[in-house]
Amino acid sequence: MLQFYGNQPPAPLNALRVGGTCPHCGQRSSFTRMQDLIENVARSAKLREIMVVYHCDACLAPVPVSYDVVDWDPARVDRPRMALPVVEGYDYEHVPEPVARVIKEALDCLSVRAYLGFAAMARRAVRAVVEDLAPDGEARVERHLEEILELTGLDGDWQDKARQALRPTPGVAGPDLDARGAKVLLSLLRDLTYQIYTRPGRVRWAAE
Length: 208
Known about the structure:
By secondary structure, this protein is of the alpha+beta class. The chain folds into 2 domains: about 1-80, no CATH class; about 95-205, no CATH class. It contains 6 helices and 6 strands, in the order E-E-E-H-E-E-E-H-H-H-H-H. The model has no long low-confidence stretch (mean pLDDT about 90).
């Protein structure tokens, strides 16, 4: 996700100070422009989209950003977007590898805004948790999910969507998700694996 300090798009390219979540190191950082756009060449070609390469100030890796050109006189750009997908961070501490593998595929879907694919993989991740906790996995996941929903205070519609997404009924399609819905679903999945795996694992480690 990109962030602009000071001037906001649409604005002259040279006036934009860019930062955001680095697709390489995953840190929030400012970005520094690596190369100058040859504006006279781009202007003569009447390009309507340009790519500008920055580097992450935290890890120095290149971060390409695409812009739409609003006007060339003066040069102004809008609709910035990263050319590399940003994968959301996730705490995999003490999460079994079969569960973590499915979650990673879900996050890959989310990184390219494939929200329905993310929802499908999130359901598979919950199923992997159930299978890992067998024979009482279904009951434990059900109990944890209801506790999380109660603690969050989500309204009835969101709770119904969450149950439909994470506990799919045979023959019933999951809910349509947008960016906001996917963010809520990801938060619930994070909390579920934290409560079941990460927190107990840390307590066991401390006891040892």
